Amino acid sequence: MFTFTLRRLLFAIPTLLVISFIIFALLDLAPNDPTGDLPLTIPPEVRLQIRASLGLDQPFFIRYMYWLQQFFINEPLNIIEKLTGWQFGDGNRMRVLSWATRSPVVDLIVQRLPQTLWVVGLAYLFGILIAIPIGVISAYRQYSIFDQLGTFVSMVGYSVPTFFTGVLLIVVFSSYLQWFPSVYDTNLEVRDLSSFIAQVKQMILPVGVLALYNASQITRFVRASMLDNLHQDYVRTARAKGVKEKAVLLVHVLRNSLIPVVTVIALGVPTIFSGAIITEQIFRVNGLGQLLIIAVQGADIPLVQTLTFIFAVLIVLFNLIADVLYGILDPRIRYD
């Protein structure tokens, strides 16, 4: 297993380099201009000076190498300095800067990351906790009323887009019943019981929308995997030996059924960090999804490049984690 993991990590390096080059090239070829939103009264020579200050007067390959140095060397060194207090060099190294705010892109991401993790992360966790028992019971009681109801809800939750579900919940619970706020207040600080209750209330709608979507997707995998294992020979053998039905279901069937489900869950973890773009826009959650939308609308190419590449890194990383977990859970798989 260690050899396989090390080999995959080494293979991930050229993979990520190729991905970074493709992302950088595609966004560089996109028809955008950082001076496009400036007033028309600005002289052309001033526009050329602005482009030169952003480094756009350099050839494509030089700008790409600068970005690699800033992202893979300068930014990690800056993070290490902040965490440890050590000093590497003079500390005035060039970082990846946003065209719109002239602030370091990593700092902008760090500011938005907690909101995304709170909302999207909790929604994913609740979705898993809801999906597994529903999928297990639906498979064990196949074609029962519970199974049919659970299948119907999961199909609706997975098929209906989150922007429709979000708007529907806002209309019902915010406008009509006025139970929960429709806008997520990012500036709210939890200091006492009342502020904690306010924080919980404003998280219910966005977390509920995303949890329904995640649970609907995972429930289908759990149910299908459980049905596939319930009819295997080892289940009939365990029952013939007099093993209690609860032990057969939860120890034998569920453990083997969770092998492909864990893979699906692990591959879905990067979506926590990438944010829920549509849901964050609906509820005004100041997270990474909204940050990406703002960057795209403002043609902030360094911010879009960095965010997109970080999402790609997370996908490659959690693909590796999913493969490792698959080998740990299934003793029949040997990578070495």
TrEMBL record:
Where are the bilayer-spanning segments?
9-27, 117-140, 152-176, 196-216, 258-278, 309-329
One GO CC term of this entry?
plasma membrane
ABC transmembrane type-1 domain segment(s): 113-322
Cited PROSITE patterns: ABC_TM1
In terms of Pfam families, this protein maps to: BPD_transp_1, BPD_transp_1_N
Lipid bilayer topology: Multi-pass membrane protein
Query: Keywords, A to Z?
Result: Cell membrane, Membrane, Transmembrane, Transmembrane helix, Transport
Subcellular location per UniProt equals: Cell membrane
| Principal location listed in the UniProt entry | membrane
User: InterPro entries, alphabetically?
Assistant: BPD_transp_1_N (IPR045621), MetI-like (IPR000515), MetI-like_sf (IPR035906)
Origin organism lineage: Bacteria, Pseudomonadati, Pseudomonadota, Alphaproteobacteria, Hyphomicrobiales
Family statement:
Belongs to the binding-protein-dependent transport system permease family.
Name listed for the protein in its UniProt record:
Peptide/nickel transport system permease protein
Per the UniProt entry, what are the Gene Ontology biological process annotations, in alphabetical order? transmembrane transport
